[in-house]
Amino acid sequence: MSIYKSSNRVKNQTLSLSHLRKIWGSEQNVSDKLLSEVSEELNSNVNMCQLNTELRMCHFIAQVMHEVGGKFNLEENLNYSEMALISTFSNYGRTPSDAKNHAYNRATNKKADIEAIANHAYANRMGNGSVESGDGWKYRGRGMLQLTGKSNYISMKTKHNNLWSASVDFVANPDLLLQPKFAVRSALIFWLEHQLYKKADIGASRMVTDSITKVINSKTTSYSERHDNLTDLLKRKVFKDVF
Question: Entry's InterPro entries (predicted)?
Fold first, then answer.
């Protein structure tokens, strides 16, 4: 914990449900309970996890907005078409017949085999075993920044337990990251580990946003959308009264 230096918050206001409700506006899509748990966890860790300025928080939330979407989904969406699988995952690029078998097909009303997709897409990557190991599905993307891969779950376990003086086994119980508290913490650990707060401190330009996006998901096609999120958060001063 001591390896991370943090400055004091300029103000001692509370990041609350009302702030996040300005972003996720419909309670039909996202419950008060979920957003309250997320805001409480963020508020408790703004200093330790280097989210202690308006600009840092806006950069962080701009990325989260795209990762979880309008319904605040804490689990990876694996509903892919055949061509999307081939273009997104190298394993499917090498075996396009598998992409056809696993993808959805609207013309025939065929649903995607999401478990098979995870196991094939992530086989022999990020600490995962073979397709047959089932690691791809077990360690599919979860949390606010979509933690993926067995090696990252192992790292999450070590770093989380050091930072929060806890004993939680995310490797044995990866679905823990679907709980708001741990979903938030997984994203905070990523933010710290990659020192994204230093990039955020540079400013609010497209170049800065892109540099953060590249670390979180280099192959995404959403660079522009993530920057638009940041611009909107700053324009509306969503977190200004917190800092």
Answer: Cell_Wall_Dynamics_Protein, Lysozyme-like_dom_sf
Q: How far apart are CA 20 and CA 18, in angstroms?
A: 6
Q: In whole angstroms, what is the distance from residue 192 CA to residue 162 CA? A: 13
The pTM of this model reads 0.91
Among 184, 111, 173, 178, residue whose Cα is nearest residue 141 = 178
pLDDT in tens, 180-200: 999 999 999 999 999 999 999
Rounded to a whole number of angstroms, the distance between the first and last alpha carbons of the chain is: 22
Domain ranges of the chain: 17-74+179-242, 82-138
Answer for the pair 135, 150: CB distance below 8 angstroms, yes or no: yes
Determine the Cα–Cα distance for residues 116 and 240; give it in Å rounded to an integer: 44
- Per residue in 64-96, pLDDT tens? 999 999 999 999 999 999 999 999 999 999 999
